[in-house]
Design goal:
Blueprint lengths: L2 H5 L16 E4 L2 E4 L17 E5 L2 E5 L3 H19 L10 H8 L4 H10 L4 H10 L6 H12 L2 H4 L4 E3 L15 H5 L4 H5 L12 H6 L31 E2 H10 L5 E3 L5 E2 L1 E4 L29 E4 L1 H9 L6 E3 L8 H10 L5 E3 L14 E3 H9 L6
Parallel strand pairs: 5-7, 6-8, 7-11, 11-12
Antiparallel strand pairs: 1-2, 3-4, 9-10, 12-13
Helix pairs in contact: 3-5, 4-5, 6-11, 11-12, 12-13, 13-14
Length: 381
């Protein structure tokens, strides 16, 4: 017996004599030994797991089955997990799987996801901005404003395709980039026609309508603005200012594919006047960005030609393919700059472009092949 036990009057051992696996505790007037191992459920009769049997005049209480206790406990835990476990939804999927799913969705569906679900906003916007598509030059001007004021979205863009402006919706009046330019001007805003709130003609009224009266064509998209009466002379044009294209080429540095086929470019000017400060993170501002008529003074603006746009195009570090078909503004000096200053350019398509027919560089070829071809061509404007 330890010295500490001899010093105690009651003869009980002290805490220093208790072994770690044989801890004793007092229960009433008796001393019980705790089990050396713990079960999932303590073997107590209050859980209703013990069994009793009667032999003669004696009642024998049998200890509960440890295996039965474990099975019962694990079953109850499993049922609680099934009851409280979250239901698998689209929001719980990994980002990589969401990207694969959203890649199959059209642009209008992705736009609806942006408006309805905050949890899916990042994945939907990533796919939406990778390959943007524009219903009109008005929507393109909106896109230019968005990416030039948000580097986060500008880094997502991988492809720029403006080829459909020259062939889609010809002759249909539609609001363009000029309406977007003057969107905050009171004079233009008050005279913008409103879309009627009446429902479309019923089948009976359509049959009663005179077939000789040709109804004017309008934009079918209800959310698209109407052409402004003050700008009706440009309502059927699909031109794009050079400055808008330069904005995209400077802001979206990760573009890999560019298609400028059928594109009609409008002359633009860089604003030099200190009265107009650029708000884009690219620190560029053009006349097409300022809601001002052509009342500029000498020294306030400088012309921005297509050569400046081509130089911005060649500065893209990851440009792989370039398509400029049926564009009269493309000349041989532009082609020479492209094949010389684009280190990663792999394929080009310049068919049916240029001021003259059958120019040698108006072909579809690899960039290296066209580079060797341009070395044998004389310099020309």
């Amino acid at each position: 017996m330890s010295p500490n036990a001899n010093n105690r009057k009651d003869g009980n051992p002290s805490k220093s004599d208790i072994k770690p696996l044989e801890i004793l505790h007092e229960h009433g007037n008796s001393v019980l030994s705790r089990r050396k191992f713990s079960s999932l459920i303590p073997p107590s009769s209050e859980y209703g797991l013990s069994s009793t049997s009667r032999i003669g005049n004696k009642t024998i209480r049998r200890p509960p089955s440890i295996a039965g206790s474990i099975r019962s406990y694990t079953s109850s835990i499993g049922s609680r997990k099934r009851k409280h476990s979250p239901v698998m939804t689209l929001q719980l999927l990994p980002t990589e799987i969401l990207d694969q799913i959203f890649a199959y969705l059209p642009q209008d569906s992705l736009h609806k996801l942006l408006l309805t679900s905050r949890s899916l906003f990042d994945s939907a916007s990533y796919i939406l901005y990778q390959v943007p598509s524009f219903a009109s030059t008005y929507r393109f001007a909106q896109f230019v404003t968005q990416v030039t004021h948000s580097p986060h979205y500008a880094k997502m863009v991988r492809e720029l395709d403006l080829s459909h402006f020259g062939r889609d919706g010809e002759g249909v009046p539609m609001a363009g980039w000029r309406e977007y330019k003057y969107r905050n001007e009171l004079l233009y805003a008050l005279n913008t026609p409103k879309r009627p709130l009446s429902p479309p003609l019923s089948p009976t009224r359509e049959r009663q309508a005179s077939p000789e009266v040709e109804q004017p064509k309008t934009v079918t998209t209800a959310s698209h603005p109407e052409p402004n009466p003050y700008l009706k002379q440009w309502a059927t044009t699909r031109d794009v200012p050079v400055g808008a294209v330069v904005h995209i080429l400077v802001a979206c540095i990760h573009i890999r594919h560019v298609n400028l086929s059928n594109l009609v470019l409008t002359t633009d000017y860089a604003v030099l006047s200190p009265r107009y400060r650029p708000t884009a993170f690219t620190q560029l501002i053009f006349v097409s960005d300022v809601a001002k008529s052509w009342t500029w003074k000498n020294g306030e603006i400088a012309e921005l030609d297509t050569t400046s746009m081509i130089r911005r195009l060649t500065a893209l570090p990851q440009l792989h393919t370039l398509t400029i078909r049926r564009s009269f503004w493309l000349v041989s000096n532009h082609v020479r700059l492209i094949v010389r200053d684009c280190p990663r350019l792999q394929a080009v398509d310049f068919r049916d472009s240029g001021m003259r027919q059958s120019v040698p560089w108006a072909v579809e070829a690899r960039a290296s092949t066209l580079s060797r071809l341009m070395e044998d061509q004389p310099m020309s404007p």
